[in-house]
Write a structure and sequence with these properties.
The chain has 71 residues and is α+β, with helices and mostly antiparallel strands. It has helices spanning 4-17, 44-55, and strands at residues 26-31, 34-41, 62-69.
């Protein structure tokens, strides 16, 4: 199992590499394989892309998504 710090860094890096996403808009926490995304994004596509980026990371057991879409 990855450490919380390692998992957090992997998730943050994945979000930074997604072309539609602005990492400053999305808050990330990681605890024992449970990743929480929070914040406000401008489109539904960004919300889905953030979810998909996190789901691809080894060590993520559960994704709690608290992203809000504000147009």
């Amino acid at each position: 199992m990855k450490s919380n710090e390692s998992l957090l860094k992997d998730v943050q890096d994945a979000i930074k590499w997604e072309p539609l996403l602005n990492a400053a808009e999305i808050g990330v926490t990681a605890q024992d394989g449970i990743v929480t995304l929070s914040g406000v994004v401008s489109t539904y596509a960004k919300k889905i892309q953030a979810e998909n980026a996190v789901k691809k990371i080894a060590g993520v057991k559960v994704l709690i998504e608290n992203l809000q879409v504000h147009f």
